[in-house]
Amino acid sequence: xxxxxxxxxxxxxxxxxxxxxxxxxxxxxxxxxxxxxxxxxxxxxxxxxxxxxxxxxxxxxxxxxxxxxxxxxxxxxxxxxxxxxxxxxxxxxxxxxxxxxxxxxxxxxxxxxxxxxxxxxxxxxxxxxxxxxxxxxxxxxxxxxxxxxxxxxxxxxxxxxxxxxxxxxxxxxxxxxxxxxxxxxxxxxxxxxxxxxxxxxxxxxxxxxxxxxxxxxxxxxxxxxxxxxxxxxxxx
Length: 236
Fold this sequence. Notes:
- By secondary structure, this protein is of the alpha/beta class.
- The chain contains 6 helices and 9 strands, in the order βαβαβαβαβαβββαβ.
- Helix 1 (13-24) crosses helix 6, helix 3 (62-75) packs parallel to helix 4 (100-121) and helix 4 (100-121) packs parallel to helix 5.
């Protein structure tokens, strides 16, 4: 596996942890985010960890993503991996009172962005490279007020199974990493539960997936606890 990785959503809690861990393990990283201010803060926090470049951009729609891809190509013409961690802020929204227009916007922000990102970046990957989307474990849970999260994450899981089949001729690895935990990250470092998966745990698991893609044959990868972080699946 090569060492040039693009992290989309690098300014968020999960993206920060992924970026930091990849830098520690010697990867060269292009950090992508919508806010150059947040990226500049990320750069300051990652000072001395490794080779990090910043690109402001978005995967909100095909036009924005195409412009972003052109910027990325100037740094990594054929990246070895792309990690995408994008998600709109969570809101409690009971389905019976949810307006259809609002639901459509939720789907656009949480699901369609992942489709746009995959369509845009998979063709850019070096052969044998890895495309890794990051989602949550709400796909299998029913919690009142959090139905939109469950719907989006369940759809994301199926979507990447389909994409992996439909893009199988590309010669790349396509995965959806589902995090079955709240994440302890930059924004809530002092108030998280000790059992929550941390952003650094996610980063360690992402690094292992990128370094050992053949050890993860399934499209959907789950991370359920801190003790699983950085571990390859058991072959027994």
